[in-house]
C-alpha cells in the first residue's frame, strides 16, 4: 500500500482527504465519526463572531439535480455558517484535537470585515490548538448580503487586506477559501498570496437556482412560496473547480502557492485529478453528505492502488498534469484522429448517427441492417459521437500516423504546428 501521509502547509494528516467546512464538520459527534471512518482531516464548519448565533431557515435548505438513475449530480444549499454558539464549537474543537492528534483540524472563519473582529476571533481560537485557519471568503448567500463571505471574496483588495490582518494577529497557517463567483479566479488567488496566505482552497459553492416549481412558481428549495439563490456543489461542479485549480497552478504569479482542491470530489480518481492539476490535498463535502463518511475508505484504497500501479509517490502526483494545461493557440493542429466504431460492441441505437448527421459533420453512414460506419473523408474528429454513444469504448478516436494523408483535407499529417504559426492566423500575416 502506497504511503498516503500528507503534509499541507506544515499540517500533517494520514491521508490527503479532508472534509470541507460544512454540515459534516459542524460538531464533535460528526467529526469524531469521520475520523473513525478514516478521514485525514477536517475544516470545521465556519465559525462567526461572538454573540447571538446566526439563524437558519426552518424549511428546506437543499435543491438538487439528479441523473436518470436518480444519482445526485448537483446539490444547492441556502444554509449559513454554524448556528451553534461559538463557545460550544471552541470547546468541542479543543476536545477533538486533543484526542485526534494525528488528524488535521483547521477552523473556518467568517467575521465582519474590520480588523478588530478578526483580531478578536483569532484570539479566541488560539487556545483550541487547532492546526490552522481557513478564511471563508466564499459563501455566496445570506452572509454576502451582510458584507461577508463572497462579498469579500469578489474584491481582491479586501482579500489581501483581511489576509494581512489574519497573518498579523495569528501565527497559525492560513488558507484562503475562494469563491468561484468571479470572472477570473487568478485575481483573488494573487491577492491572497500578496496578503501572506499560506495556501488557497477552492472552490466554494456556485450561485445557482436548481429548479422552479411550475405549480407554485417558486424557486426550489421553497420557503413559504419564495426561494433565493443558493450555493451549488457536488459532481456537477467538478469541471469548473478543476479548471480554476489549474488556472492558479499555472499562473506565474501564483505558481507554487499550495492549493487545497474542492468541488465534486466523490472518488479517488476525482481526488487524483485535482492533485495532478496542482492541489496538495482535497476537501470533500457533498459526497460525504450523499454516501456517508465511509466513502473515504474507497478513496484511500483506490489512491494507494493507483500510486502503487504507477510506482510513484503521492508528492510526485501533485502538479503532474500542470505542464500539459496550455492555451488553445498552442494545441497541435497536426494531431489528426478519426472515429472508429467497434461493430461487435455496437447495439445499433443510432445515437451517433443522429448526432453526427443533424449537428456535426454527416460523417456517419447508416448502412442496411443498421450498420453504422464512419466516413473518414467527412470526419473532423470532433468526438461528439463518442460522447453520445451509450456503450463505453464502442467508439474510439484513432490517431493517423505521421505522413498519412487525411482523406478529409488531402493533406499529409505533419509535425507539431500550432495556431501561432498557421497561415490563416491574421497576426502571422501581419508580422510577415
Ligand atoms: C450544506 C452546505 C453547507 C456549507 N457550508 C459551508 C461553510 O459553512 N463554510 C464553507 O467554507 N463552505 C461551506 N460549504 C461549501 C463546502 O465546504 C464546499 O466548498 C462545497 O460544497 C464544494 O465541495 P463539494 O462539491 O465536495 O460539496 C457548504 C456546503 C454545503 C453543501
Ligand atoms: S468524430 Fe464527429 S465528425 Fe467524426 S464521426 Fe464522430 S461526430 Fe461525426
Ligand atoms: S451510438 Fe454507439 S451503440 Fe449506438 S449505434 Fe452508434 S456506435 Fe452503435
Q: What do these coordinates show?
A:
- There is one protein chain.
- It is built from 14 helices and 20 strands.
- With 432 residues, the protein is of the alpha/beta class.
- The strands form 6 sheets. It has an 8-stranded parallel barrel, surrounded by 7 helices. A 4-stranded antiparallel sheet has the order 5-6-14-11, with no helix packed on it.
- It is globular and about 75 Å long.
- One iron/sulfur cluster (SF4) binds at residues 339, 355-356, 360-361, 363-364, 374, 379-385.
Quick summary:
The chain has 432 residues and is an alpha/beta fold. It has helices at residues 28-37, 86-99, 115-126, 150-153, 156-169, 186-195, 238-250, 268-276, 286-291, 295-310, 314-317, 351-359, 384-388, 426-431; strands spanning 6-8, 11-13, 17-19, 41-47, 62-66, 72-77, 104-109, 132-136, 174-177, 199-202, 206-208, 211-212, 219-220, 230-233, 259-262, 279-284, 337-341, 364-367, 371-374, 395-399. Strand 9 (174-177), helix 6 and strand 10 form a beta-alpha-beta unit.
What's the helix and strand layout?
Elements: E1 6-8, E2 11-13, E3 17-19, H1 28-37, E4 41-47, E5 62-66, E6 72-77, H2 86-99, E7 104-109, H3 115-126, E8 132-136, H4 150-153, H5 156-169, E9 174-177, H6 186-195, E10 199-202, E11 206-208, E12 211-212, E13 219-220, E14 230-233, H7 238-250, E15 259-262, H8 268-276, E16 279-284, H9 286-291, H10 295-310, H11 314-317, E17 337-341, H12 351-359, E18 364-367, E19 371-374, H13 384-388, E20 395-399, H14 426-431
Parallel strand pairs: 3-4, 3-16, 4-7, 7-8, 8-9, 9-10, 10-15, 15-16
Antiparallel strand pairs: 1-2, 5-6, 6-14, 11-14, 12-13, 17-20, 18-19
Helix pairs in contact: 3-5, 5-6, 8-10
Bound molecules: flavin mononucleotide and iron/sulfur cluster (SF4) (2 copies).
Residues 20-23, 45-46, 75, 77, 79, 81, 108, 136, 138-139, 177, 204-205, 233-234, 237, 262-265, 284-287 line the site of flavin mononucleotide.
Amino acid at each position: 500500500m502506497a504511503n498516503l501521509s500528507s503534509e499541507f502547509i506544515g499540517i500533517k494528516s494520514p491521508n490527503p482527504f479532508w472534509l470541507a467546512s460544512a454540515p459534516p464538520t459542524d460538531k464533535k459527534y460528526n467529526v469524531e465519526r469521520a475520523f473513525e471512518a478514516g478521514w485525514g482531516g477536517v475544516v470545521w464548519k465556519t465559525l462567526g463572531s461572538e454573540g447571538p448565533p446566526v439563524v437558519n431557515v426552518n424549511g428546506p435548505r437543499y435543491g438538487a439535480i439528479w441523473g436518470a438513475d436518480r444519482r445526485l449530480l448537483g446539490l444547492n444549499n441556502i444554509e449559513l455558517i454554524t448556528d451553534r454558539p461559538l463557545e460550544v464549537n471552541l470547546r468541542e474543537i479543543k476536545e477533538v484535537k486533543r484526542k485526534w492528534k494525528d488528524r488535521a483540524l483547521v477552523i473556518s472563519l467568517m467575521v465582519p470585515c474590520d480588523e478588530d473582529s478578526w483580531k478578536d476571533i483569532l484570539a479566541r481560537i488560539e487556545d483550541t490548538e487547532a492546526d490552522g485557519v481557513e478564511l471563508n471568503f466564499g459563501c455566496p448567500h445570506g452572509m454576502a448580503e451582510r458584507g461577508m463571505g463572497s462579498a469579500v471574496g469578489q474584491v481582491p483588495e479586501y482579500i489581501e487586506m483581511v489576509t494581512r490582518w489574519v497573518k498579523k494577529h495569528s501565527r497559525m497557517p492560513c488558507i484562503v477559501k475562494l469563491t468561484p463567483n468571479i470572472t477570473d479566479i487568478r485575481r483573488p488567488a494573487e491577492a491572497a498570496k500578496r496578503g501572506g496566505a499560506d495556501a488557497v482552497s477552492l472552490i466554494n459553492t456556485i450561485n445557482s437556482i436548481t429548479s422552479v416549481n411550475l405549480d407554485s412558481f417558486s424557486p426550489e428549495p421553497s420557503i413559504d412560496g419564495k426561494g433565493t439563490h443558493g450555493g451549488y456543489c457536488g459532481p456537477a461542479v467538478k469541471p469548473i473547480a478543476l479548471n480554476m485549480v489549474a488556472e492558479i497552478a499555472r499562473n506565474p504569479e501564483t505558481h507554487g502557492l499550495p492549493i487545497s482542491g474542492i468541488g465534486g470530489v466523490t472518488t479517488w480518481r476525482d481526488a487524483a485529478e485535482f492533485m495532478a492539476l496542482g492541489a496538495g490535498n482535497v476537501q470533500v463535502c457533498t459526497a460525504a453528505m450523499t454516501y456517508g463518511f465511509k466513502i473515504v475508505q474507497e478513496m484511500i484504497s483506490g489512491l494507494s492502488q493507483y500510486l502503487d500501479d504507477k510506482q510513484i509517490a503521492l508528492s510526485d502526483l501533485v502538479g503532474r498534469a500542470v505542464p500539459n494545461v496550455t492555451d488553445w493557440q498552442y494545441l497541435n493542429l497536426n494531431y489528426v484522429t478519426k472515429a472508429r466504431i467497434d461493430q461487435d460492441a455496437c447495439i445499433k441505437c443510432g445515437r451517433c448517427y443522429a448526432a453526427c448527421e443533424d449537428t456535426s459533420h454527416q460523417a456517419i453512414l447508416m448502412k442496411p441492417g443498421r450498420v453504422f460506419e464512419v466516413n473518414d473523408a467527412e470526419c473532423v474528429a470532433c468526438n461528439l459521437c463518442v460522447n453520445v454513444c451509450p456503450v463505453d469504448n464502442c467508439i474510439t478516436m484513432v490517431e493517423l500516423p505521421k505522413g498519412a494523408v487525411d482523406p478529409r483535407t488531402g493533406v499529409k499529417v505533419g509535425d507539431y504546428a500550432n495556431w501561432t504559426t498557421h497561415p490563416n492566423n491574421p497576426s502571422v500575416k501581419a508580422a510577415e
